[in-house]
Amino acid sequence: MADELPDADTLRILILTDTHVGFNEKDKVRGKDSLETLEEALQIGKNGRADLILHGGDLFHENKPSRGCLFRTMNLLKQYTMGSGEVAFEVVSDPACFGTGQVNYKDPNLNVECPFFMIHGNHDDPGGESNLCAANILEVGGLCNYFGRHEDLEDIVIRPILLVKGKTRVAIYGLGNIRDERLHRAFQAKKVRFETPVDTEKWFHVMILHQNRHKGNKGAVPSKACIHEEMLPSFLDLVIWGHEHDCQVKPQESLRGEFYVMQPGSSVATSLSPQEAGLKHVALIDVKEGVFRCNPVPLWTVRPLVMRDIVLSETGLLKTDTQQKQKQRSIAKPKCRI
Amino acid sequence: MADELPDADTLRILILTDTHVGFNEKDKVRGKDSLETLEEALQIGKNGRADLILHGGDLFHENKPSRGCLFRTMNLLKQYTMGSGEVAFEVVSDPACFGTGQVNYKDPNLNVECPFFMIHGNHDDPGGESNLCAANILEVGGLCNYFGRHEDLEDIVIRPILLVKGKTRVAIYGLGNIRDERLHRAFQAKKVRFETPVDTEKWFHVMILHQNRHKGNKGAVPSKACIHEEMLPSFLDLVIWGHEHDCQVKPQESLRGEFYVMQPGSSVATSLSPQEAGLKHVALIDVKEGVFRCNPVPLWTVRPLVMRDIVLSETGLLKTDTQQKQKQRSIAKPKCRI
Ligand SMILES: [Mn+2]
Ligand SMILES: [Mn+2]
Ligand SMILES: [Mn+2]
Ligand SMILES: [Mn+2]
């Protein structure tokens, strides 16, 4: 799949999420990790001849990225999304959903070859006096198409972006992060509506959201502080789940078997948890008419996180042996690298 | 002059400085003043068919402009500098002086019709962990050409940007703000050097700087905390003085008669001083071969600042008359509007 151009009816999308650029940026050793992995992901999209990039939120780790972080991210987006290549798909929905009133590659003053689409996460959500987010700065700089912002929580109307490439029609429903309890309540109260294109069955329906995902009753999250797959409409074909850092990139059938769910996971470990320890991935998905194929691509720049259990009672240490405790500490340290 | 296209040998430059965008932005009445006047200035450049815009620093009032301020400024620059019109001059000096390695209108992925060039002021100077300034964000967004940054204060080498339009050759020497005492010392110690193009006499030499200006011994500024005209080299033809908010836009001959000095002044009053109370201006200058003409244009969006002296002893008030004092206060108030 990679290196070959997608055919005239195949829309190829680089899927990534939770890149958390700027995470730990003051750390002398790990400070550049998040940015390097963002670049690796963008490189995968370029080498893989993606038609577009779709980001699931938490692009930035900080709501107000540092100047250096914003600058370097803009530089990367400029490098990987602008160029003289042709965009082979059309946006046929109302471009008024974008802040600039048009999708960036239609701006006559910009040459965009691989447009970047994104929703916001909880880390980079809009707010403050201006009620803007970092994505708005990227947008006015011609570097992204920001969508999926819903301000009226009493009436959340999700209008898809409609993309057409040859015979393939893809509707993308964006839902930027909303506080989980509030969104849960809005779903329960039927205050979340999806607008669908006419000839609904001729479209491939993708939803991208950034919320806690219900993991059954085993999880620590109360069931009202997350979104259950069953709450999402059955006409969807594929749901891209952002916010969950665990990489479950291979599409899984939803509980009721109505759609697939893929959860790309974060591209940098932001916590010392087993969920962050697995191999990280992005994915290239090919949509051709009504079907899709997912090609997960591992990220090799990610710093390995190794977790191991130590059973103290088996170490032969005496509880009162201070010297041994010191020694044990120095042993335990390298076992938990991030 | 305005409304007519400059001829093929005339380089027309919109000159502005100290726009202090974001000044007082939380003020409910005056919050948008600085941005509105920036737009008025850009409009003057557009209507006046300027070939380029040259800004003398303090574009932003805050070193870290708020998100809304940055966003709206970027939006204005996008609106007024990008477009399908042709740029009628050439930059023939090494474009490595720009952070992106090229002047923005030469970027094949951008359509720039009226390029914006700027130096930094003391308000928007580079620093912090990244050692960047707000201008670098504009630059990576394709919205400005930032120059005149000198990092080695032991050896300040001012290399001009060389612009050619028809028979006219203009060399622009940029010097972004440096702490006045340090720059003064560097000049005295001959650590400031100017590189000039070959055939120096065939060029029109413009210097743009952002420093305290020596005003004789009457001023409050110690003479080592400012730059004296006599310190600047005599081959210059025109010096554009930023930082001084007083509008002295009409070019004045320097003390030794070697060059002209124009001081456009701020476009928003940032202090309650007589210097800020005059009518504000920007200027369109036409350079044709060795000569220039300056066309000052008043800014009408600037909120009038009226200053009047009140001699309390002439008001007929008794010192102990509290009621009268109250009354006087309510009279005095409207006399000092900003
Ligand atoms: Mn995240
Ligand atoms: Mn998140
Ligand atoms: Mn100023
Ligand atoms: Mn200043």
From TrEMBL, chains A, B:
Top-level division of the source organism's lineage: Eukaryota
Domain Calcineurin-like phosphoesterase as annotated: residue spans: 11-246
Coiled-coil spans in chain: none
The name this protein goes by in its record: Double-strand break repair protein MRE11A
Species: Symbiodinium microadriaticum (Dinoflagellate)
Name of the coding gene: MRE11A
Residues of the full protein shown: 1 to 338 of 1087
